Amino acid sequence: MNRTLRGFRDILPPDSELFSAIEDAAREVFRLHGYREIRIPTLETKELFVKSTGDTTDIVEKEMYAFTDGGGREVAMRPEGTPGVARAYIEQNLSQGGRNAKLFYIGPMFRAERPQAGRYREFTQIGVECIGNPSPSADAESISLLVKVLEKAGAPGCTVELNTLGCSDCRRAYRDQLLGYLKLNTEALCEACRRRVDRNPMRALDCKVDGPWLADKAPHISLCPGCVEHFDRTQALLKAAGVDFKVNRTMVRGLDYYTRTVFEVKAGALGAQDAVAGGGRYDDLIKSMGGPAAPSVGWAMGLDRAALVIKAAGAAPEEKGPSAFFVASGKEAGLEAFRLMSDLRAVGIPADYSNFDLSMKSQMRSADRSGADYAVIIGEDELKSAACSLKPLKGQAGQESVPFAGLASRLAVKPA
């Protein structure tokens, strides 16, 4: 028997319903904040991710699903959403719209990393990008937006951490300073950091092996006055919006394009791998890709990890059965049941059935398992009287006779 590949899986109810609930919550919050949906391709050129995400990142070096297609093109399954959105912004001339582009996306990403709790090789991300706004208010709104999505989705106990990486000028000076320190301590670095230290010394700060001790011992970045002002203003705006956060001066993000504000949202329910979402400002990315100067900020949230937090808190939405489950005996009764069921659905009342050709006993077993509020029973007697038998399935005793014409009105009244 064929089985799913390691790191890939089927998402079945009720998990699929929880995923949909989180997506619905996110869409509602995005609407309130003026964000509009963009749908980007699953497959892009490999070069897009190498040049934007960074050729020394773990994503590009070890995790990206890249291959040569039948036409000899070097392509890759998208490991993240930002490069594709940035490419679309340039290619579709979105800068000509006369306003900042506030976009969100929801879709699958692919990374060949080691599967673990809440982390798969195919996973769904919800992400936002605010392109063209250099103001700290865009940073604060982006972070506030993320918090509101998690709150509306029912993920409690999440904490926000933020830091600043400085602008390109700050980073350039810091890169030389950090490289000098790492060169003096080469023997203490892991093999991966030693290999890429000359190409990207700042990647060592995000290394799972070297990052913790470098956070204490390596020199810290010196910020220019503009970056200090930007970060201070971002914090003031977050406080004004009522967003709780803490500054984590050791936090860096693993992607090369980040500048100034970076942030993560963490949840203790996830254990050591506690990041639910993360993002930051990327003021130079779009220009470096051949587009206009478009300072931007955004984030991405793992849907799987958010779902774990919600389930750990017992906040997952209850599984809901239909209002009515139809049980019918005989062809004429089945015909009437099907007509009534269609009428209920047409006015927004959920209705279901199993198979009218089965015995009444078998159909009633299906009704009991369905989670429905009522069984709507139609047999010869009900056909003669043009009234169905309505049997409660959730603790109430007895049943009542309801005229076919009045069934929708009766079911609109919720059971006690």
Main attributes of the structure:
alpha+beta; elongated; BirA Bifunctional Protein, domain 2; 8-stranded mixed beta sheet; 5-stranded mixed beta sheet; 3 domains; about 425 residues; Rossmann fold
Characterise the protein shown here:
The protein is α+β, with helices and mostly antiparallel strands. It folds into 3 domains: 15-167 and 224-312, Bira Bifunctional Protein, Domain 2 (BirA Bifunctional Protein, domain 2, 2-Layer Sandwich); 168-223, no CATH class; 324-411, Rossmann fold, CATH 3.40.50.800. It has helices at residues 15-32, 46-53, 58-63, 82-91, 136-153, 168-184, 191-196, 211-217, 225-240, 285-288, 303-312, 331-346, 360-370, 380-385, 407-411, and strands at residues 36-37, 43-45, 66-68, 74-77, 101-110, 122-131, 158-164, 246-247, 259-267, 275-281, 296-302, 324-328, 351-353, 374-378, 387-392, 400-403. The strands form 3 sheets. The protein has an 8-stranded mixed beta sheet, with helices on both faces. Strands 13-12-14-15-16 form a 5-stranded mixed beta sheet, with helices on both faces. Helix 1 runs antiparallel to helix 5 (136-153) and helix 5 runs parallel beside helix 9 (225-240). The model has no long low-confidence stretch (mean pLDDT 89).
